[in-house]
Amino acid sequence: MAGHGGAPVGDDLPIADNEFSSGKTAVRIASVAALGGLLFGYDSAVINGAVDSIQEDFGIGNAELGFAVASALLGAAAGAMTAGRIADRIGRIAVMKIAAVLFLISAFGTGFAPEVWAVVVFRIVGGVGVGVASVIAPAYIAETSPPSIRGRLGSLQQLAIVSGIFLSFVVNWLLQWAAGGPNEPLWFGVDAWRWMFLAMAVPAVVYGALAFTIPESPRYLVASHRIPEARRVLSTLLGGKNLEITIHRIQDTLEREDKPSWRDLRKPTGGLYGIVWVGLGLSIFQQFVGINVIFYYSNVLWQAVGFSADESAIYTVITSVINVLTTLIAIALIDKIGRKPLLLIGSTGMAITLITMAVIFANATIGPDGNPSLPGASGVIALIAANLFVVAFGMSWGPVVWVLLGEMFPNRIRAAALGLAAAGQWAANWLITVTFPGLRDHLGLAYGFYGLCAVLSGLFVWRWVMETKGVSLEDMHADIMTQDLPTAAKEG
């Protein structure tokens, strides 16, 4: 710990940090903040179980259906862009409560939607909640965690996201099974697919209620000149030692006379700070490797190997379980071997598995139904490669990108920069999601593109991403804000 980033040993708070990490306060408040990730994952994946029913009930074509499915991603991009600015004005906790309300409105609005336009509107509302949660949770966790365990606590966000995806798959399957089909009536004569959305109200209420039980971010309190409150929160988090040193260091990195704005992301000499470009790059590569194709369209892969639709649905749940388990690997390793090595290992694994899938699908035979057919060993290899791809992503780019986005930006620009990066991530997610159906007849080309992006992601990390393991948020400030990107990256 001592001496990271050139800071004096006394400033790095080794005693308080050890006291903090031995208690349960850090885990409790990070877990509550990460609940937003659970709703984020649930809301993103719940539409899968209802797609066919929405199309049947409202009599819409593929284009309208595609827009209804992707509308939440547009809302997420908008929510991410605005969340940081709002959080800088009214606080991190208030924004969590707003996100909970948005999830609740979306649950009831979509569940009782009379027409497809209502589905789109309330999916956008839920998407805004997703975007807000995707920004506020990593920022808050980074700002309330000590350097030595910040990576593990930040990884709880991704664990919550993949748990939310898994939960939505399970809830959808149970409701569908209980009703005898997604478009069959269940309780009170309401169709099962509508209950899939209504069920999201429960975690939304829990998240909103628990947001009242955790303290405001001390860095936000210092920025708002509420020093006594910040001192009280830091005392709860760190114990009584080195409080004034910590507050002064936070004040130094937040020193300003004007209000936070988007202009803070620009260097005095013009253009965005290099670290902002790195955040955008990490976000875009996380989506361009095609992870959401595996989750949104995995049935195509399973059916290509000869599984039925029901069997494919079960294997999709198994894939989501693998994603949860591999996230636990990242939580165990991230504060030991660091962020950068995990990303490089993940990029290598993703590149190998994606290129393998590209070669296999490029040589697949297309059946009379238009779906690829993978008989014999090629099908088994494709399935193994797909699951190993999920393992490589789940232990690296899935959780590590969220950890880095929460901690890599200096205090002064964290909320705005994280919002911009998250918005870029949602825009990239939308682009990959809407373009894949057109590539279903050219899966070799699709997986080849994702494989190329995996290779480029490794080169990007090796060249430009700094290691942040064990470095306090305040120590990152001077290096990043005063130096150009390549120099800062080399120091990493």
From TrEMBL:
It is found in: Cell membrane. Pfam families: Sugar_tr. CDD domains: MFS_XylE_like (cd17359). One of its GO terms (molecular function) is transmembrane transporter activity. Keywords: Cell membrane, Membrane, Sugar transport, Transmembrane, Transmembrane helix, Transport. InterPro entries: MFS_dom, MFS_sugar_transport-like, MFS_Sugar_Transporter, MFS_trans_sf, Sugar/inositol_transpt, Sugar_transporter_CS, XylE-like. Residues 29-469 form the Major facilitator superfamily (MFS) profile domain. The chain crosses the membrane at residues 65-87, 94-114, 120-141, 153-175, 195-214, 272-297, 312-334, 341-361, 381-405, 417-439, 445-466. It is a multi-pass membrane protein. Belongs to the major facilitator superfamily. Sugar transporter (TC 2.A.1.1) family. This is MFS transporter. It comes from Mycolicibacterium litorale.
